[in-house]
Specification:
transmembrane helix, transmembrane, 110 residues, membrane
Length: 110
């Protein structure tokens, strides 16, 4: 299997594992009454696998996209995913922090 396919598959499986853990936590803590609602429903056993599957698709897509975006660019020579790449990604998302400077008081009319 090519390395890029293994890379994507590994990150997709990480996303699905995170989704299963999230659904498990939602059931365990009865988030928004989901466990109670499923217990009272005739098709309660179908709800959680469907929720886990669709959350898994979402989380796997996000995980694969983040992993691809954190790869080093051609000619970087570094190893992708290091701390400087993450901080530059956060700086891109958050934007520059404005620095406040004192303003000069202008003499005006009274």
């Amino acid at each position: 299997m090519p390395a890029h396919v293994r890379f994507l598959l590994r990150n997709a499986l990480i996303g699905f594992a995170l989704a299963i853990a999230m659904v498990g936590a939602m059931v365990w803590f009865d988030f928004a009454g989901l466990r109670t609602l499923a217990a009272q429903s005739n098709s309660g056993l179908v709800a959680f696998p469907v929720l886990a599957f669709f959350l898994g698709l979402t989380f796997a897509s996000v995980q694969m996209g983040a992993a691809i975006m954190l790869l080093p660019a051609d000619g970087d020579g570094g190893n992708g995913g290091n701390r400087s790449r993450v901080t530059s990604l956060l700086a891109l998302l958050v934007g520059p922090v404005p620095v406040l400077q004192p303003a000069e008081a202008k003499a005006g009319r009274r």
